[in-house]
Amino acid sequence: MKKIYLVRRTAFILTIFALGALITGQVPMWVKLGYPTAVMWLLMIYDEALFELREQKRAYTVFRQCKLHEKMKMSKKV
Description:
The longest helix is centred in the last third of the chain and has 49 residues, at 29-77. 92% of the residues lie in helices and 0% in strands. The chain is mostly helical. The chain has helices at residues 2-24, 29-77. It has one domain (2-77). The two termini are 42 Å apart. It contains two helices and no strands.
């Protein structure tokens, strides 16, 4: 969860930086080249973080279902 939060904050800072550069009208070449690269990099990290979060939730759900199934089996035996 911390990774997602960090990526969102970084994306916000990059957005504000880009707006400032566009408002001044003088965008340096390194910004023109580096900004799209940074945005794509952040999108890949964000996608990876969301995937990890989904996998954690899925593993927790499967674990809970197994425990519930075991409880039901035990109650039927008694």
